[in-house]
Amino acid sequence: MESTIVPINTHKTKSGSLQVNSDHALEQIHSTSNDQKWTSSLIWAVIIVTFSTSFVMGVNTGGPNLYNGFITPWLRGYPFPCQKEDSTSQWIARVWLGCDYVNTALKNQNGYYYLPSIPEKRRVAQNFIDSLHGIIFVIGAAIGSFTGQYWYLFLTRRNALIMAMLFQIVASILMISTLLIYHANNLNDPNLLDIQLALQNKDLAISLFYLSRFLSGWSAGLSCVVTPIYLTDISPRKMRGTLVTYHQLLIVIGVLIGQIVSLPWLLGQHDKWHWGMAWIGIFPLVGCFLMWTLDESPRWLIQDRQRHAAIESLRNLRKTNDIEEEIKEIEREELTVNIQDSSLFRLLTSSRFRWPLLTSIILTGVSQFSGINAVLFYSHGIFSQMGLLEDKVYWTVLSTGMSLVISTLFSIKLIESFGRRPLILYPLAIIVMIMILLSIFLKINPEGLIIVILLLILLFITLFAVGLGTIPYLYPNEVFTISVRPIAHSIAMFSLFFNDALVIVLFPLLRSILNSYVFLIFCIYCLLSFVFLWKKVNMKFLSVIEF
Question: C-alpha angle with apex 379: 125 to 140, nearest 5 degrees?
Fold first, then answer.
């Protein structure tokens, strides 16, 4: 196809910024991108980047949920094999290690064969301490997401991705060391010398464990900013939404794989869980080397005034020499960026960006306060309290991961077919009703209605995946101008992880106070968000494109 340069019809907005006439712009874009498609270079880049960052984040999210039965007593200072609290981890200790939970009078002479019970008055505080490693992970993610804009502006896009991988590599090394220096494998009733030897490196090991979780979180937060931006930069315009959805798809695949690896038949055991938390470092380690086979972002190269390198990068990505129009389009966009003020202060104070920014924050907030992370982080405990015992908990947790993956696969097609607004609002309305039903059924008879409750949870996960699971990552890239898009995306991801942290901190506390009614908190938040988004999100496809 022969490309021609089409004049751009623009007008000034009230804020003084340049806005492109949507119909004319879309016609021009169609003329320059209607033959753009998947190429081998593009496929290779998506595979390397998403498996080295997005997939890693998913494993770090899905795995710890099922390792908590081993991590909790270990963090409390009780590292011996039979010191387990919940029924599922006790079942593993009994079947795999031969621990005796029947003849209790014959053992526990020094208080280190069984895990001591927590007094009722200390239970809320202890629940908070037990969940601290999840909180630290999310704090690291919040910092990583907020600072992401600076990493890929001062480094190249590719180097910023490598930094995210390096954080995870260090985290994996630290995680391996934790159980090597602080562990106990004595299956008999331990004597005082065994206890002393086991606990001598406890404080150091726990510090390394928390540091590892923080760095894994930082890597995840940084990836959530840099990966979508890089995928957007290298993709043809008409494929940008599709490519970014692969970021979310690999996250949920990682969640499922993390759940599978944490099964007791694999790494979900007393002396193997640290490998279950660390093995994922292999992917970013390999990714660090393979990243050098990928093309640098053409947009970043234009920003750095490396036009010839940008042309070569785009030629390799598109597998064609006919890329001059796309290069000129990037240059026009970047020229506008250089003219406009793209500071954080402008984003926060400009009336032009007020509603898009608030909508992005609400979207990321409701994606976490919908209750999804209560399911992902605490599903093990929730299902155990519902009466599921032993291996049944694992198969139920795996069903949540499989539901996430299947639904996200469908969402890739649904987003472009139905648009953003329907996939946000209609599932959100049904989620409100599901939260009400869960509160009622869990209160009435959780064991008798276990099948109904499980089906409601799986329906909730499906509805979340088709809309709220993907669109919050897409929305900031579609509603903000090029000049403020990096900062806006970082703030949106910071909001996502900040709300994630609130859920992780508050859910155990609220569940101990409200019991099953804790789901009404999610219901109220979803209902308020539905009302706001119904009024403010009026977008099926991007009809106005601004530069």
Answer: 60
